[in-house]
Design goal:
The protein is built from 8 helices and 37 strands. The protein is mainly beta. The longest helix is centred in the first third of the chain and has 11 residues. The N terminus is likely disordered.
């Protein structure tokens, strides 16, 4: 493995850093500067850098990867005590995560997105979990995935369409599950706490010769936030089977399913257009993968998967003096994807990977597409990446993708990165990349009509189609620095970025369609349109990890973003700053703890449309804590845990603007504190 890097960073104190974090800055800056005093003859601090696969589809140590990447390992996930993965991503620099209600997670990189973020590719073992249904995005609480399955999460912080397509517009999250032969045996976890938290998870894995199998089951229940209709129940069952028929071949089968019921809506919504209801979801997936290694430096990978999503969401809108109108957002979707990838090392200083992918998405939602379901959306994509080391300290990565979506011309997405190992302990990187965002079916074909069941008259048409939407394009420039120091075993990763976005898509008011809906004067029509000017995101983000004492680790993630959009309603979709500080402590005798503080700047979150109403959630600071004790009961190892989330004042993270208009400046949906106990043991 590569050795650590040596350097002399001189971090400045950011003005927007919260007071709680600013007080630690002299300490953190001092340890970095102290490391620079080491003489060139000193032995470098030796620590293995993680190998990442997601940056280029090539196995690369972190300092050679084309772009900034964060690796969240299994131990970190366990240390948080969190019940869901989306909350773990709050600890990553540049990520902007919020909750509109207990089970609704808004997860983006650099904000900016609409109500259902889809500018960041999310994968499970390389399989995309972006929903192909009407709205796109990721349903984080309904993923057919158990927390116990996760081996690590790789987050590529920056555009990566050359590797993973148009949804990797701003970044990639790749959730990598454990091999089924890992840690054989059975285990279980039970959680119980306030907000009616009641979770039960169980898993079993075993191996016989070249065959191995892992089964995970989980059921999660809670009552959500105080005062909201957001109780949730979700059941998950997954299976992973691995078979190695020969020394050169490996087969993997992964099956997953989730089913649940979640509360949505508000009792006082206007005309009941967002009335309270229960949403039922059923998701399942099958993923087959074959790996063939004809030589030590060569690999073929053939993958196929199918994702199926079924959502049932119906309620009745009514108001005094108006007819009761049935509404629904029922939607079914199916995605089939086939991909072939080849990796090789044709020369001593060259690695290559190339591949081809074909995809087909189908959506069925009669109410959301009143003029008829959209045609099946197809994708054909060629991709490749070459890593070349012309000099010992220099690594160059050249990647590109050519992809074509239904009804669109072929689009070319290039990427060029250079990494320079300035010393044995520090690396500089610079790069450029381009991506084209895939348009969501609802943006193109969405046509919603509320109809009086008695007369057949159209009451409102809140959404109109726009088949002339252009694909959004981003051109991103990046400068980066990765340094590691002997003082306190410190690592510093810095990313400076300039992301220029053309043809951004936003929801805009429209003239009343003809014939004019009866209630057009109360609820007007909108459609998605391209912004007529470019958007620029400029800023800096960094991650710092240090171990000042035995058993102690501090992790700081901070981002500052200069938003140059122009329209205020676009500016406010991105928080100008985020910061998180985590303290992990091993106290000995089996006791461990983690305390995290998060500071989030003002954020609108999405593009919920209410004419003439503009609302931004205020900045907030929140604390999470987890305390665990590893012991034995007789001969059985047992872990007890106490976890608390959202400590401190109640705050609002993401507002539903249709509801918020009724509450003015008073938060309509503040989050709630939650505390629970857990126990984990082998079964």
């Amino acid at each position: 493995m590569p050795t650590a890097r040596k350097g002399r960073p001189t971090p400045a104190l950011p003005d927007s850093l919260p007071r709680a974090l600013r007080s630690l800055w002299p300490l953190l800056a001092g340890l970095a500067l102290g490391a620079s005093a080491a003489t060139p003859g000193e032995s470098p601090y030796i620590e293995e850098l993680p190998v990442v696969l997601t940056a280029s589809r090539l196995p690369q140590p972190l300092h050679e990867a084309p772009g900034a990447a964060t690796v969240i390992d299994r131990e970190t996930i366990a240390a948080t005590g969190y019940r869901d993965l989306a909350r773990v991503l709050r600890l990553v620099a540049g990520m902007q995560v919020g909750q509109e209600r207990g089970h609704a997670q808004w997860v983006t990189y650099h904000g900016l997105s609409n109500d259902f973020p889809s500018e960041m590719q999310v994968l499970v073992d390389g399989r995309s979990v972006i929903s192909p249904s009407a709205f796109g995005g990721v349903d984080w609480s309904a993923l057919p995935l158990a927390m116990d399955e996760i081996d690590r999460v790789e987050v590529v912080r920056g555009t990566n369409a050359s590797g993973f397509g148009a949804n990797a517009f701003l970044g990639v999250v790749n959730i990598i599950t454990r091999h089924s032969a890992d840690l054989p045996g059975a285990s279980g976890t039970l959680r119980a706490g306030d907000a009616a938290v009641r979770d039960l998870e169980a898993g079993w894995s075993g191996a016989t010769g070249p065959h191995s199998l892992r089964v995970n089951a989980a059921t999660k229940r809670d009552d959500g936030f105080d005062g909201l209709n957001d109780a949730s129940r979700m059941d998950v069952l997954t299976l992973r089977a691995d078979w190695q028929p020969s020394a050169r071949d490996a087969l993997m089968l992964r099956l997953g399913g989730s089913a649940g019921r979640r509360g949505e809506g508000y009792a006082d919504s206007v005309f009941g257009n967002d009335g309270p209801r229960n949403v039922r979801n059923h998701n399942h997936t099958v993923h087959l993968q074959w790996r063939h290694n004809p030589a030590p430096d060569e690999e073929w990978v053939l993958s196929w998967y199918r994702n199926v999503e079924r959502i049932r969401e119906a309620w009745t809108a009514s108001a005094p003096g108006f007819p009761a109108v049935p509404l629904d957002r029922h939607r079914d979707s199916t995605r089939d994807d086939l991909e072939l990838q080849h990796r090789s090392a044709p020369a001593r200083d060259v690695q290559l990977v190339w591949g081809v992918e074909a995809r087909r998405d189908r959506v069925d939602s009669p109410f959301l597409f009143a003029a008829g379901n959209p045609p099946a959306q197809t994708l054909v994509r060629l991709f490749g990446n070459a890593e070349w080391r012309p000099l010992a300290p220099l690594t160059i990565n050249l990647g590109a993708a050519q992809e074509r979506y239904s009804g669109e011309p072929a689009r070319f997405s290039p990427r060029l990165f250079a990494n320079w190992q300035a010393t044995t302990r520090e690396t500089l990187r610079a790069g450029y990349s381009r991506a084209w965002r895939q348009r969501i079916p609802f943006e193109l074909y969405g046509d919603v009509r509320a109809v009086d069941p008695a007369s057949g008259a159209v009451l409102v048409r809140p959404f109109l189609p726009n088949r002339d939407l252009r694909q959004t394009r981003i051109d991103a420039l990046e400068l980066g620095y990765l340094g590691r120091f002997t003082t306190w075993s410190t690592t510093l990763d810095v990313r400076l970025f300039n992301e220029r976005i053309h043809d951004f898509i936003l929801r805009a008011p429209q003239p009343d369609p003809q014939p004019r809906p009866l209630l057009a004067g109360f609820l007007g029509s909108t459609r998605y349109e391209n912004l007529d000017r470019p958007i620029t995101l400029r800023g800096v983000e960094y991650q710092l990890a240090t171990r000042p004492l035995p058993g102690t680790e501090l992790r700081l993630a901070h981002s500052l973003i200069d938003r140059r959009f122009g329209p205020r309603e676009i500016d406010d979709r991105t928080a100008p700053y985020t910061a998180s500080l985590s303290w992990l402590q091993d106290w000995g005798r089996g006791w461990r703890s983690m305390i995290s503080v998060l500071r989030m700047g003002p954020l609108a979150g999405g593009d919920g449309f209410v004419p003439s109403f503009h609302y931004v959630a205020r900045p907030y600071t929140t604390w999470d804590a987890n305390l665990s004790w590893h012991t034995r009961v007789g001969t059985t190892p047992v872990q007890f845990g106490l976890t608390a989330q959202n400590l401190g004042p109640r705050h609002q993270e993401i507002a539903d603007r249709t509801e918020q208009v009724l509450h003015g400046t008073h938060a309509a949906n503040p989050v709630s504190r939650s505390v629970w106990l857990s126990v984990s043991l082998p079964l």
